[in-house]
Design a protein that fits this description.
Blueprint: H1 17-22, E1 35-40, H2 49-62, E2 66-71, H3 79-86, E3 95-98, H4 106-111, E4 115-118, H5 124-128, H6 132-139, E5 144-147, H7 150-159, E6 162-165, H8 168-180, H9 182-200, H10 202-214
Parallel strand pairs: 1-2, 1-4, 2-3, 4-5, 5-6
Helix pairs in contact: 2-8
Length: 215
């Protein structure tokens, strides 16, 4: 009750667009030639990585022209199972795992990918806000596939920048639809990029924060 609205502003969990604009694409890193799904961030069961690997196996049986690129550190509790999954014959030639990259390299890896994934499991944290990587993904100009955690689903639906799912069957369908339709991928990717700048250009938020301190 002692807080005053005039002393509070909302500063969203957005990216520094000026910083991302300074990152250069490394043209030495090439595409695989297949439609590439990319997951960036902590690799864990709670982040939906095993759901993704399970659905990927089904997708490959229908469309073998699909790869998955996973970038990020693995939760200790999930390491053994994760590497066991990667040895499966059905995944062996379709999944690449990179343990770590510098943030400045992220635009390069989004550039060689076609679809960006955020398959978060529902929990209090994931229902309370949007993961920072969603804004990073939007900068990549690629369509998103997200789970139905409310904040990220609402953003993807309102920006028309990707597809969301509630079940494994829907997740599979999202992958197959976007893998097949390059025009749709381009349309959704451009929508997300444009909306990122229209809605979340951090210059405006920075000025509001500075003004709060000045006053």
């Amino acid at each position: 009750s002692f807080l005053s609205k005039k002393n509070v502003i909302v500063f969203p969990n957005i990216i520094d667009l000026r910083l991302f604009e300074s990152f250069k694409i490394n043209t030495d890193i090439k595409r695989t030639g297949r439609v590439t799904l990319m997951y960036f961030g902590a690799v864990a069961e709670r982040r939906g990585i095993f759901d993704t690997l399970n659905v990927l196996q089904k997708a490959i049986k229908i469309n073998s022209n699909i790869d998955l690129l996973i970038i990020g550190p693995i939760d200790k509790a999930d390491k053994k199972l994760f590497f066991r999954e990667l040895t499966k014959k059905s995944l062996k030639n379709h999944v690449e795992y990179i343990p770590w990259i510098e943030l400045k390299e992220l635009p390069t890896y989004m550039n060689i990918s076609d679809i960006l994934l955020s398959p978060l499991k529902k929990n209090e944290q994931h229902e309370s806000g949007i993961a920072n990587k969603i804004f990073q993904y939007l900068y990549g100009k690629k369509p998103l596939i997200v789970s139905d955690c409310r904040p990220q689903k609402e953003l993807v639906d309102s920006f028309k920048c990707g597809l969301s799912y509630s079940t494994q069957a829907e997740y599979l369908n999202c992958i197959l639809v976007l893998a097949k339709d390059e025009q749709l991928r381009n349309e959704l990717g451009n929508n997300g990029f444009n909306k990122l700048y229209e809605t979340f250009d951090n210059d405006g938020y920075e000025q509001k924060l500075l003004e709060l301190y000045k006053n």
